[in-house]
Write a structure and sequence with these properties.
Helix content is 36%, strand content 12%. It contains 14 helices and 15 strands. β7, α8 and β8 form a beta-alpha-beta unit. It is globular. The structure holds pyridoxal-5'-phosphate.
């Protein structure tokens, strides 16, 4: 028996894991998803929800509804039918706002994450004088790194000078909040935009968003968060935390499907400032005059995050996201988070008993989401392959990290037990 700081007496037996599943009514949510199967028909234990969430069973029907609408109505589908396309993205507004702790007008579902990041930096990265730098965390997801490097160059600056990076102390896998605050304190005045990931994609560390945001604001920085690994994973309060902008994708913890339409948050104190510079397109314009087309030569941004939209949205790609968001609506993020902490806590307890491997992810449940990253030097890649042969899908990151996400919507305690058991077998072989 292993006792965790949160004092769950976890047991490392299959029977105990099955009992935990039987005792938690949320275990039934799994039935709302398609679980991948092995050639022999048995279900895979899927730990890659941090990369691509599984398909909600409702997704197909919602996509077919729009295919039918298109077949039956053609262009009329924009304004007729059960869910007219003209306002289709509005169906996602309230669920999205609740998911990230925003006011409805502060969020919009559009484009993909990196596109939204560029749109946000176009508005909020306004280097002037000595305040011309962008601060990011490391390890950095390559797309974010390329986006900020190119934005810096676009403004005529040198990324070698204008890109500042926060590194964990040597031999530590995570950033200490005190170090981030000290950095902001000493260098904050040079920084135009602080752009950190809400949950770091390698370590799984969930940063202290309100404390860091407030500290950066005190130094006059604009603060954006990349929530790719945080949305649908941890409880967020973007409005109350006074975050300036945030972006996220919808295909990881949100289960919106491969390349799903992404999310964007603009705090209302900016969203209602129609004078903010931005890239414009017709969908960001006031919908009352949008279809006057050639009669309107002036762009009037819609107040709120909607004013950053460019194009009419891909309805067929929004449909599966509706299915996924409906599930978040039935349960609510705080309830999911409680189950997530228990699942991850169980995995942590079992992983602690393994003969090898070092945990990169913070031990404090409040400082992580539903991901544990294990560093297993020399063995991680082969282990990932061996686990897949046994029907356990985990993710490998160069050079030696395995990332497992026990997702509260569709993973079971039994999956966690199976994964830990298989790891133990493979590591003692
Ligand atoms: C997944 C992820 C992305 C992906 O970007 P796309 O534009 O959706 O391809 C970007 N940044 C981070 C931090 C991610 O985790």
């Amino acid at each position: 028996m292993v006792n965790l700081p949160n004092s769950h007496p976890w047991r490392n037996t299959e029977e105990f894991a099955r009992q935990l599943d039987a005792d938690d009514p949320l275990s039934r949510l799994r039935e709302d998803f398609h679980i991948p199967r092995r050639p022999d028909g048995s279900e895979v234990s899927y730990f890659c929800g941090h990369s691509l969430g599984l398909q909600p069973r409702m997704a197909r029907a919602l996509v077919e509804e729009e295919l039918d609408q298109w077949a039956a109505l053609g262009v009329e589908g924009h304004f007729a039918g059960a869910a007219p396309w003209y306002s289709y993205h509005e169906l996602l507004r309230e669920p999205t706002a609740r998911l990230v702790g925003a006011r409805p007008s502060e969020v919009v579902v559009m484009n993909s994450l990196t596109v939204n990041l560029h749109l946000m930096l176009t508005t909020f990265y306004r280097p002037h004088g000595t305040r011309c730098k962008i601060l990011i965390d490391t390890p950095t997801f390559p797309s974010d790194l390329y986006a900020v490097q190119s934005q810096i160059q676009y403004h005529g600056h040198d990324p070698g000078q204008a890109l500042l990076m926060l590194h964990p102390r040597s031999a530590e896998g995570c950033l200490r909040t005190e170090d981030i605050l000290a950095f902001l304190d000493s260098r904050g005045e040079e920084i135009a935009v602080v752009l950190l990931s809400g949950v770091n994609f390698v370590s799984g560390q969930f940063y202290d968003l309100p404390t860091i945001t407030a500290a950066a604001h005190r130094k006059g920085c604009c603060v954006g968060w990349d929530l790719a690994h945080a949305a649908g994973n941890v409880v967020l309060q973007l409005h109350d935390w006074e975050i300036d902008f945030a972006v996220w994708c919808s295909y990881k913890y949100l289960n919106g499907g491969p390349g799903a339409v992404a999310g964007c948050f603009v705090h209302e104190r900016h969203g209602h400032n129609l004078a903010l510079p931005r890239y414009a397109g017709w969908w960001g314009n006031d919908p009352a005059t949008r279809f006057r087309m050639q009669l309107e030569d002036r762009f009037i941004p819609r107040p709120g995050a909607d004013g950053w939209q460019l194009s009419n949205p891909p309805i067929l790609a929004l449909a599966p996201l509706r299915a996924a968001m409906a599930l978040f609506e039935t349960v609510g993020m705080p309830t999911l988070r409680t189950r997530s902490e228990r699942l991850t806590g169980y995995l942590e307890a079992l992983v602690e008993e393994l003969p090898a491997g070092e945990m990169l992810t913070p031990r404090d449940p409040a400082a992580r989401g539903s991901q544990l990253s294990l560093r297993i030097p020399g063995k991680a890649r082969a282990l990932t392959e061996r686990l897949a042969e046994r029907g356990i899908l985990v993710d490998f990151r160069e050079p030696d990290v395995i990332r497992l996400a026990p997702v509260p919507l569709y993973n079971r305690f039994h999956d966690v037990w199976r994964a830990a058991q298989a790891l133990r077998d493979l590591l003692t072989d």
